[in-house]
Amino acid sequence: MNTFIQNDHIRVGIKPLGAELFSLRGLQSGKEYMWKADPAFWGKTSPVLFPIVGTLRDDKYKYGGKEYSLPRHGFAREMPFELRSATDTSATFVLESSEKTLLKYPFRFRLEMGYTLEGTTLIVTYHVYNEGETDMYFSLGAHPAFAVPVTEGLHYEDYHLQFNHRETAPRWRIDGAGLIEPVATPCLDNSDHLDLRKELFYKDAIVLKHLSSTLITLRHKTESHGLEFRYDQFPYLGLWAAKDADFLCIEPWCGIADSDNHNYELTTKEGIEKLAPKDSWARRWSVTTF
Fold first, then answer.
1. How confident is the model at residue 75 (pLDDT cuts 50, 70, 90)?
2. What is the DSSP code (8-state) at residue 102?
3. Which residue among 66, 69, 219, 241 is least enclosed by CB atoms within 10 Å?
4. In the chain, where are the structural domains located?
5. ∠ CA 74-15-255, rounded to 5°
6. Tens of pLDDT, residues 40-67
7. For residues 259 and 254, what is the distance between their CA atoms, to the nearest angstrom?
8. Using omega within 30 degrees of 0 as the cis cutoff, is the peptide bond preceding 149 cis?
9. Cα separation of 82 and 112, whole Å?
10. What is the DSSP letter of 72?
């Protein structure tokens, strides 16, 4: 059963499968800010990427002398979460390791996803707990897809992204196997502005590393409705849309796809997080509608 939370400003819907956010509606404007999950383009709206982000080289990794296999972005997005607690304006979902997950990922964990409303803002939190007796290695990322255009009848190309700092950052492309290419190409050059064009994503995501910005605003050149996306302590950022689809994913990541020369070892994977036994780890992002 889907879970809904709301206040006087926004109403949010979350599915139990993957604890996936699927609706963010402005109650005054009536606007739906999330992508409609049209399967002709992409049938998801906001999967959680865990315990890896992106694609492993040959879909496999090594840990402790053993070889394991994981699909792109891991398994959490395809597993049912338990609704652990809920109020009118908040909800917490939990996924715990099991004998099934241990076959693919040899760490005992608890992943909690929290959704909280504050005014016109939705706050999404991730807590990872290492329930095992050894260090735990993982990546985690967000993948929310926002409707573009926000207002029906407007054009995708009339929207842009505004960063809260000027950035000089190249684009790390993703090759046909889903791996990060070894050489970056120019993208942001002392700029805080990126005009949206559907052609930007014809060769998969724009991947940026180590930005200074922690706030990205989606704006139309004349119309007033859009959103502010805040994130912190995520070293990688993906921007993506399916080919010619009317959405934009803004994806803060703690982790990244392999390159084609990675040695398969999980402990040396770029961007991997290390969590001590019985310790916890947290990140959050938020979206404010206007």
1. very high
2. H
3. 66
4. 3-289
5. 25
6. 999 999 999 999 999 999 999 999 999 9
7. 16
8. yes
9. 9
10. T
| DSSP-based three-state secondary structure for 76 | helix
Question: Which amino acid type is present at position 73?
Answer: H
One-letter amino acid for residue 231 of the chain: Y
In what side-by-side order are the strands of the sheet with 90-96?
A: 82-86, 90-96, 109-118, 121-130, 280-289, 227-231, 215-220, 159-171, 185-195
> What one-letter code names the amino acid at 9?
H
Burial class (CB in 10 A: 0-12, 13-18, 19+), 214: middle
Query: Backbone dihedral region of 41: left (phi > 0), alpha (psi from -120 to 50 degrees) or beta?
Result: alpha
* pLDDT tens profile 165-224: 999 999 999 999 999 999 999 999 999 999 999 999 999 999 999 999 999 999 999 999
pLDDT tens figures, 91-138:
999 999 999 999 999 999 999 999 999 999 999 999 999 999 999 999
Q: Which one, of 52, 78, 111, lies nearest residue 254 by Cα?
A: 52
The dihedral through the CA atoms of 44, 101, 113, 130 has a sign that is: negative
Counting Cα atoms < 13 Å in the Cβ hemisphere of 53 gives 28
CB 125 within 8 A of CB 13: no
CATH number of 3-289: 2.70.98.10
pTM over 0.85: yes
